[in-house]
Write a structure and sequence with these properties.
The structure holds two protein chains of two kinds. Chain A has eleven helices and twelve strands. By secondary structure, chain A is of the alpha/beta class. The chains are: A alpha/beta, B alpha/beta. The interface between A and B is large, with 61 and 76 residues. Chain A: Keywords: Oxidoreductase.
Amino acid sequence: MTTIDLGLPGIGGQTLVPRSETKLSPKDFKSDQEVRWCPGCGDYAVLAAVQGFMPRLGLRRENTVFISGIGCSSRFPYYMNTYGMHSIHGRAPAIATGLAVARPDLSVWVVTGDGDALSIGGNHLIHTLRRNVNLKILLFNNRIYGLTKGQYSPTSEPGKVTKSTPMGSVDAPFDPVSLALGAGATFVARVLDSDRAGLTDVLTAAAEHRGTSLVEIYQNCPIFNDGAFEVLRQPGERERRLIPLRHGQALRFGAEGEFGVVRTASGGLDTAKVAEVGEEALVVHDATLEDPSYAFALSRLSSQDLAHTVTGVFRSVSHPAYDDQVRAQTEQARSTTPADLQSLLAGKDTWTVVG
Amino acid sequence: MSGSDASLAATEQTERLERVVIRFAGDSGDGMQLTGDRFTSAAAAFGNDLATLPSFPAEIRAPQGSIAGVSSFQVHFADFDILTAGDRPDVLVAMNPAALKANLADLPPGGTVIVNTDEFTPRNLTRAGCAADPLEDGTLTSFQVHPVAMTTLTRGALADTGLSKKDAERAKNMFALGLLSWMYHRPTAGTERFLRQKFARKPEIAEANILAFRAGWNYGETTESFAVTFEVAPATALTPGTYRQITGNSALAYGIVAAGARSGLPVLLGSYPITPASDILHELSRHKNFGMTTVQAEDEIAAIGVALGASYGGALGVTTTSGPGLALKSETIGLAVMTELPLLVIDVQRGGPSTGLPTKTEQADLLQAMFGRNGESPVPVLAPATPADCFDTMLDAARIALTYRTPVLLLSDGHIANGSEPWLVPDASQLPDLTVEFATEPNAPDGSGGFWGYLRDPRTLARPWAVPGTPGLEHRIGGLEKADGTGDISYDADNHDRMVRLRQAKIDGITVPEAVPDDPSGRAEVLVVGWGSSYGPIGAAARRVRRAGHGVAHLHLRHLNPLPANLGEVLSRYERVVVPELNLGQLALLLRAKYLVDVLSYTKVAGLPFGAEELQGVFTDAIEGVRA
C-alpha cells in the first residue's frame, strides 16, 4: 500500500481525536447487529474495508462517529460498533457539521448514497464542501435507488429504463467528482467497491485530510442495477478503461501502459496512445494544484458509459477547515472578553425603581 | 401680546398626563424606527412604564412617498404599569402625505397631528393617492393640527455645517424627535450621547443630527405654535429594582445565553435568516465569549440539522425561524422526537400562509407546532406573553428540553419580537439550575455490561444522554423505530404501539405549573383564556371591564403542550370561556377537543395585535350574554 504523503502543512484530519491506548482489531468495529444488505451487495465490501481500516487509524472507538442519511448504504452506522446516527434523507452532512463544530475530539464520517447526497441532499453536500468542514464523506454510488426498489437516480445514465422511467430516463446525470470540485472541495477521490487496496489507500488519505474529504465509491447493486460497473472489473476491459491516479507519477493506463493522459490545445485533458505522443507528453499527476481546473479536467475524462473512469485522489489541497475557524473565533472572544452574564443582562442603559 | 411673551406663557403651561401614545410615521427611509426607539429610550431613562409597537413594510425601500412604504413606530408611556402599546395614538407625527393618510384613521377625534408640511407637494400628494391636500381640504378639522416645515427648518439649522442639501434634510427625523422631546419634557442627554456613539466614525453627521435635534427642541420652545407641554411622571407602582428596556428577540437571545450558562453546556445555534427572527441570530453571534456558537446554515433544514448534530454531541442545540421555516424543519423535529435529544426550536410567528405577511404579527402556527409532523410526534410547546417574558419562557423551554430529552417549540411572534418594554433585570445567580448529567456507565439490566440507549428514567421517562466520546456506551440511534429499552431497530408491532405511547406519556408527564386565573373580584363568571402576545391587550381590556364594574377572569397559558393538569377543572368553573386569538381559533379548537368546553372563539388576522377597546367590547358582550 502507498499512502499519499502530500507534505502539507498544518494539522491532519484526525490530529485532535484521542488515540486508542489499546490495539484494536477489525472485530472491535463490528456491532452486534445482523447485517441486512442483499446478498452480493457492494456495501459488504466497503463495510469490511472500513472495519479493516479503522484500527489502522488508531483512534479511540468511542471518539468515532458515523452519520448517515437514508438509503441502503445509510444502514452502515448500525453495523459499526462506534457511535452513530442514521438520520433523515439527505441531511447527514448538516447534522455532521453541527457535531464536528461542537466536538473537535471526534472523527466524524458521513455515509451517503447517490440519491441521498446528490438528489435530496445536494444542497447540504455542496455547502459542506465549500465550507470545508472536517468531515469524511463516503458517497456510495450505485446509479440507482435501491431502498425504494429501483427508480433512476441523479447518476443514472440517460435512457435508463426503470420502474419510474419505462420509456427511458431523460435526466442528464451528475458526475459526483465534477460536482464536488465545482463546489470547491479540497479533497476528492473515487474508488471501486471491489478494490480493497485502493479503498484502504483512499480512506487513509481522506482521513488524514483536514477539511471535507469526499470519496465516491462505485458500488454494485445486485438487485436493481446489477453489473453497472462490471466492465471496470473484467480483466481485459478494466485495464483500458480505468485511469488510476498516483501523485507525482505520469498518468498511464492500459495492460502495458500503452495509454496516457495528455493536455489538449484548448487546455483540457484527453487520452492518447503513448506511442503516438511520446512519454514526455504525458501529464504528471499533481493532486495538490490549487487551481481546480486540472482536477476538473481529470474528472471529465470519466464518461457515463465507463469508456474511461478515473480513480484515486483527484485533489487534495490544504484550506482552513470551517469548524476550526469557528472554534478559533470563539476562543478569541473568550480570551478577550469576560463572560459576565449579569452585566450582559443589565446592558448599558438601566434605571432604578425605588420601592 | 408679543411673541416672546407668548412663548414664555406657553412653556409655563404644563399639563400632567397619566399616559400618552405617540406614533411616529414616515417613509421607510425617514428613520422612523430610530426616532421611535430613541424616544422610547428617553422614556425608559425617565422611569416611565412603556410598551412599543413598531410597524414597517416587508420591502426594504418601497417606492418613496407611497402608502406601501410607510413605516411607523408607536410608543405608549405612562406613570403606571401598562400592558400594551395602546390602541390609538394621542399624537401622530406624519412626515409625509402617505404617512398621514395611512395612519389618520387610527387617531381619535381631538387627537394631535404634527405634520411636516414641506413634504406636502403636489408630487407627494399624488404618490400617496390624495386627490386634494388634506391640510387644506377639511380632512383634519376634528384634530389639533400643528403644521411644521420640518425639512426647511432642518436645512436652515444645518446651513453652516457644509453638508449637502440632501444630507442635511436626512436629519429631519431628529428635528421631529427634538420637538416631541420638548413637548413631553423628555431628557435629551441620552439621545445626544447615542448620536455621538452611532456616528462615531462620521463626527460631522453626528453633530448635524444633534443640531437638528436641538433645533426641533428650540422650535417648540420659541414659537407660539404649541400652547401647552405635557408631563408624564415616572411610574412608581413597578416592582422596585433595576430595569432596562428589552425587545422580545433580545430577551430570547439572552435566555439562550443564560440557558447555556446555567446548564454548563456549550450552545450551538443553527439558523437561516428569516424575518422577524433574524435578530436572535444577530444578537447571539455577538456573544461567542459565552460559548455561543452560531452557524448561518445554507437553509432552514440544515440549520436545525446543525443544531441537532450539536445536541447529539452534548451541546445545547438551538434553531430560530419563522412559520415558513418551521414547515421546512418538520422532518428534523420528528427525528429529534425519535432520537429523544434536547433541542430548542424558536418560531417567531408572522402572518401566513406561505410567505404571507413577513413583518406583521399572527398566532397561526400553534397547530403547526402541535401537529405539523408525520406520525404521532408530540412536542412540548411554550409561548411567551410579553417581550420580557421571552427570557423566562426560554429558560423554561431549556429546562424541559434538557430534563425530558425532547425538542421543544417556543412560539414568539412579530409583535413581541420587535416590541419592547421595561424588564426587571434578574439576578443571574438566582436563575434556575439547568445542570444535566450525561450517561457515563453501561446500564444494561441483563448483566451484559452493555448500554441500552432507550432505558428510561422512571420519573421523567427520559432516555440517557450518552454523548460520543464516552467509552463503553457506543450505540446507534436514528429515525427508525427503536426497541423499548435496548434502542435497537425494531419493526415489532406491539413494540411500536408501546413506544408511540411512551413518547406521548413522556410529553404528557412534563411538569407544568397549575393554571391560576387572575380574577381580583373572585366572582367572575366569564373566563378569558389567551396565549402569547395577546397577554397585553387581554389584560388591558380586562382592567377596563373591571373598572366598569364587571367581573372577568384572565388565564394566560405559557404552556400549550402539555396544558396545565388542572385546566379542565378551571374551565368548568366558569359560565363562559372566551378565547381571543390572532388566528381562526386554534387554541379554541384544542380546548374544545380536549375538554368538551363550548368556548367562545374571538379571532382576528389583520397583522396587528388586538386593541384593548375591541376586546373590552367582546368581554362585555360575553358577560351580558351570561346574565341574559
